[in-house]
Amino acid sequence: QVQLVESGGGVVQPGGSLRLSCAASGSILVIYGMNWYRQAPGKQRELVATITNSGSTSYADSVKGRFTISRDNAKNTVYLQMNSLKPEDTAVYYCNANILPRVVAGERRDYWGQGTQVTVSS
Questions:
Q1: I need a surface site. Which of 5, 27, 51, 82 has the fewest CB within 10 A?
Q2: On the CB side of 30, how many CA atoms lie within 13 Å of its CA?
């Protein structure tokens, strides 16, 4: 059974930093793309950052220059380093990964973490 578990959320002042982590566990053969999404109250869920299994990254315009996505394939973990945080970054952050499980007749599918709250407030 494949699971994604997020950690690192919390409360931080504007201008501060947080690093989110998301570790995938279970019977995994291949992890392809890994992503971070966020959803603020009253708003739609949005894609924040993406990293491929070859290391290529992309970001939402609102976080470019402030956030950095990275991955450690040996640990099956994706990170989101968030710097210069703003109140508008307040949201529940979700990790997502496209995974081929190590099972007979396994198929690629998206897995989701449970979400972690990030609150930016003075």
A1: 27
A2: 10
Residues of the chain with pLDDT under 70: none
Alpha helices (H) along the chain: none
Distances (CA, A) of 60 to 47, 49, 67, 69, 89: 7, 6, 9, 11, 12
* 13 class by beta-carbon count within 10 Å (0-12 exposed, 13-18 middle, 19+ buried): exposed
pLDDT tens digits for range 81-99 = 999 999 999 999 999 999 9
Q: How many CA atoms lie within 13 A of 110 on its CB side?
A: 10
26: exposed, middle or buried (Cβ count in 10 Å: 0-12, 13-18, 19+): middle
